[in-house]
Specification:
The complex is a heterodimer of chains A (270) and B (254). Chain A is an alpha/beta fold and 270 residues long. In chain A, 40% of the residues lie in helices and 14% in strands. The chains are: A alpha/beta (270), B alpha/beta (254). Bound molecules: zinc ion. The site of zinc ion has 4 residues of chain A, from loops.
Chain lengths: 270, 254
C-alpha cells in the first residue's frame, strides 16, 4: 500500500488570540504548537490586538507590525494579510504598499469599520488586486442586526459586481450559512470562508451542492475558535470526495495565493 | 468515550446529515463513542411530550449505546406524570430540560419543584442552555440562552441534585461558572467549549472533574469532540476523567 499524499491543510483565518504571551512571537509560537497537533501546514494571520473595529491609521500600522513581528520567524508556516480600514483610504493604501510591496504580506483583511458595498472600498480593492493580493472581507447575517459598519454577504455581492475580475472571500459565509451560500451563489468571483461559526452539520454539504468545492475555503478563526471545531466541518462532511476535501482544506487557498507568492518569490512547498 | 449530548429525531429547521438514528449511531461509533445520552429534538417544540418520550425510549432500545433522557416541560399540565413515566416506565436515568424554549425562568417555583422531584427519584437533570447560536436563529423563533443566575442559590439547599448544563460554554465562563462548578452538583460539556485548545485551558482554570464530552450531534458535526481532545494536551488521568470517568460516576452515584 502506498502512503496517501499529505493533505496539506492551509488555514485561511487565524488571529493572535486565545493564547497569552508577552510578545507576538510568544503568542504565535503557542498557536503554531496547536496547529502542529492538528496537522495544519500553514496559516494566514491578520489583525493584531486588541481587536479594534475602526482602527486609526496609527493603530493599523501598530497592529500590522504585530503580525509582521509574529511572522518573522515563521515564514515557512504562516503568512499575513494587511488589516485595512475603508474609513482611511489613503492610510490603507499606504499599508498595502508598506506591508505587501515592501513587507511580507500577501493579502488584505477588511473587518467591520465600513460596509463593503461602499464605493470608498474601490481604490483599496483596485490597489490590492493590482498586487494579486488575496482580499478577505468579514461578513455576518445576525438575527438581531449587524453592527453599523458590519457587512453582509449582500454587500459583498455588490462589491463583487463592481470588480468582476477580482477574487473576493466572503468571511464566515455570513455566519447564517444557509442564507450566505444562496446570496453569493451567482457571484462566481466570491469564495466562501468556513471559519468562525458553530460546527453546524450540513454546511459543507450545502456549499458543495450550491457552489462547488472550488469556491470553499477552510479557515478556523483561531484563537476565538478551535482548529478542532472548524476542521470538523470538513472532516465530518458526508460523501466528501478525497479531491474535494483537499481543495477545501488547502488547494483552493493555494490557488488564490499562487500569483502573489510567485510575484514575491515565496515558496509554497511543504 | 461517553457523549452526554446527543439528540434523536429531526431538528425543526433543517434536515441534518445524521438525523436518522441508525446513521447517527454508526457515526458515533466511528468516533469511538460507546455510550451516548440522547434527548429528542421533538421535545423542544412538541406539546405531547409523553409521546415524544415514548418514541425516544423505543428508538433507543435496539441500540445498547443510546441512553434516553426524556423531556420534561414544567409549563405543561401534569408534567409530574411525564417525570414519573421517564423514571418508572422508561427507566431513564435522567431528563432533559429546555427552559428557554418552554418559556419559564429558573426562579420559577416550578423549576425548584422539578429539581426536588428529580432528585427524589435520583435522576440526572440535563439543562440545555442553548440549542443554536442566537445570531442564526429563525426570525420567528428567537430564543435567548437560559439565564443561569438563579441556579447557584437553588443548588445550595439541595445536596442531591445533579445538573448537566448542555451547550453552556458559549455563555457561561469566569466567576459564574466557577461558582456553579464549586457546588459539586454541576457538570458542563464540550460541545460549545471553544477557543484554541479549549479543553486544556478549561482544565487549567476549573480542573477536570466537572467536564464531560458532548458533541451536540447531529446538530453539530460529530467529529468535533475527538478533534478537540487532539488539540489539547491533557494528562492521561484528566483525559480519562473527561472522556469516561466523570460521566460513569455521574450515572452511578446519586
Ligand atoms: Zn476572525
Amino acid at each position: 500500500m502506498t502512503d496517501p499524499a499529505p493533505e496539506r491543510i492551509w488555514d485561511l483565518h487565524c488571529h493572535l488570540s486565545g493564547e497569552t504571551g508577552r510578545t507576538p512571537d510568544e503568542i504565535i509560537a503557542k498557536i503554531i504548537a496547536r496547529a502542529d497537533r492538528m496537522g495544519i501546514e500553514r496559516m494566514a494571520f491578520y489583525m493584531g490586538y486588541p481587536m479594534t473595529a475602526n482602527p486609526s491609521p496609527d493603530e493599523l500600522r501598530r497592529q500590522n507590525d504585530q503580525i509582521i513581528q509574529a511572522l518573522s520567524h515563521w515564514h515557512h508556516r504562516a503568512f499575513g494579510f494587511a488589516y485595512v480600514n475603508p474609513n482611511h483610504v489613503d492610510a490603507s493604501i499606504a499599508e498595502i504598499e508598506r506591508c505587501i510591496d515592501r513587507g511580507p504580506m500577501v493579502g488584505i483583511k477588511l473587518w467591520v469599520a465600513r460596509r463593503c458595498n461602499d464605493a470608498a472600498l474601490d481604490p483599496i480593492i483596485k490597489a490590492a488586486h493590482a498586487r494579486k493580493a488575496v482580499i478577505f472581507q468579514h461578513t455576518w447575517l445576525k438575527a438581531a442586526g449587524n453592527l453599523p459598519g458590519e457587512s453582509s454577504p449582500n454587500d459583498l455581492v455588490e462589491l463583487a459586481a463592481r470588480h468582476p475580475e477580482t477574487p473576493l472571500i466572503c468571511g464566515h459565509t455570513g455566519g447564517d450559512w444557509e442564507r450566505g451560500i444562496r446570496i453569493v451563489r451567482a457571484s462566481p468571483n466570491i469564495s466562501i470562508d468556513l471559519a468562525g461559526s458553530d460546527p453546524t452539520a450540513g454546511f459543507v454539504e450545502m456549499a458543495i451542492r450550491e457552489l462547488g468545492a472550488s469556491r470553499i475555503i477552510y479557515g478556523s478563526d483561531v484563537g476565538g475558535r478551535s482548529f478542532a471545531s472548524q476542521l470538523a466541518k470538513v472532516r465530518s462532511a458526508r460523501s466528501l470526495s478525497d479531491g474535494d476535501r483537499r481543495l477545501i482544506l488547502g488547494g483552493n487557498l493555494r490557488r488564490l495565493l499562487a500569483p502573489i507568492f510567485k510575484a514575491k518569490g515565496m515558496r509554497m512547498d511543504a | 468515550m461517553i457523549d452526554v449530548n446527543v439528540s434523536l429525531s429531526h431538528w425543526p429547521f433543517r434536515r441534518l446529515p445524521l438525523d436518522q438514528t441508525q446513521t447517527l449511531v454508526a457515526a458515533l461509533k466511528r468516533e469511538k463513542i460507546h455510550q451516548a445520552w440522547a434527548g429528542s429534538f421533538d421535545g423542544i417544540l412538541h406539546r405531547d411530550v409523553a409521546a415524544v418520550n415514548e418514541r425516544l425510549a423505543s428508538e433507543c432500545k435496539p441500540h445498547d449505546m443510546l441512553v434516553p433522557f426524556g423531556t420534561v416541560n414544567p409549563s405543561l399540565p401534569d408534567w409530574r406524570d411525564d417525570l414519573r413515566r421517564c423514571h418508572e416506565i422508561h427507566k431513564m436515568p435522567g431528563i432533559r430540560l429546555h427552559p428557554n424554549y418552554h418559556s419559564y425562568t429558573l426562579d420559577d417555583p416550578k423549576f425548584a419543584q422539578l429539581l426536588d422531584e428529580a432528585a427524589a427519584r435520583a435522576m440526572i437533570v440535563q439543562l440545555a442552555v442553548t440549542m443554536e447560536d442566537e445570531r442564526t436563529q429563525h426570525p420567528l423563533v428567537r430564543v435567548p440562552p437560559v439565564d443561569l443566575k438563579p441556579l447557584a442559590a437553588l443548588i445550595a439547599g439541595r445536596s442531591k441534585v445533579r445538573i448537566v448544563l448542555l451547550n453552556a460554554m458559549g455563555v457561561l465562563r469566569g466567576a459564574p461558572l466557577k461558582t456553579l462548578l464549586n457546588t459539586g452538583r454541576v457538570w458542563v460539556e464540550t460541545a460549545t467549549l471553544e477557543a484554541v485548545a479549549g479543553i486544556e485551558h478549561f482544565v487549567a482554570n476549573y480542573g477536570a472533574k466537572r467536564l464531560l464530552i458532548g458533541s451536540h450531534a447531529p446538530f453539530f458535526c460529530v467529529g468535533a469532540a475527538q478533534l478537540k481532545l487532539q488539540e489539547s494536551i491533557l494528562s492521561e488521568q484528566d483525559a480519562a476523567s473527561i472522556t469516561e470517568g466523570n460521566a460513569q460516576m455521574l450515572l452511578k452515584s446519586p
